[in-house]
Amino acid sequence: MNKDLIFLIMEEDSLEKEEIQIIPMIDVMLFLLVFFMLYTINVVPALVQNINVPTSSTVQPAERKEPITIYITSRGEIYYNKDKVSLDGITERLSSLPDKVNQNVIIVSDKEVKMQTVIDVIDAVKKAGISKLGLAGEKK
Question: Could you tell me which of 96, 101, 120, 100 has the C-alpha nearest to residue 109?
Answer without folding.
Answer: 120
